[in-house]
């Protein structure tokens, strides 16, 4: 059994999609980041970085309970464990390249674009311009790569597609203000529509819907989400 530590944000959504695609049994463990539950010692023992997602596989290698944190690490772990969505051996270098392109490019730049446009206390034109332009640049790279391709790597659906879907599903939040944000990237739009139509996507989107996560972005939520913005209490 897999315990899946979840909050309804793009990186956990990727893991939800893999679990639903593979039909793996799992126990959902909601972690409300606006309440600061990611900083509790019990969760920090699973992910010392205090971020979502994370999993604990009670039937890990050698039958040992195994923790895995960071969405890319989890996708790789589950792909290797199940033999699903990992591409062919010949595809592996390409798979790793695109998986880490998403992890080091699309993900963090999208996250910072969202932060400076929606969460930052000051609207800093330089920061907003910088991160929006980097999101656009990464989208262009992927759009060009997808010309004539159905999937990001090889000829089959892989964890690279799953990972990219997690963030492209929030393209309108990273680049707000556009009625059809993916219209400028026709290959990316075609690819996203095909992935988004998969039956497992609807199931992934339903994960956690029965749990009432905190919606208010009050001062306590800001301190929980952005603790490094606040001075530590004197010891």
TrEMBL record:
Residues 1-86 form the GST N-terminal domain. It comes from the Bacteria. Residues 88-217 form the GST C-terminal domain. SUPFAM superfamilies: GST C-terminal domain-like (SSF47616), Thioredoxin-like (SSF52833). InterPro entries: Glutathione-S-Trfase_C-like, Glutathione-S-Trfase_C_sf, Glutathione_S-Trfase, Glutathione_S-Trfase_N, Thioredoxin-like_sf. PROSITE patterns: GST_CTER, GST_NTER. Pfam families: GST_C_2 (PF13410), GST_N_2 (PF13409). This is Glutathione S-transferase family protein.
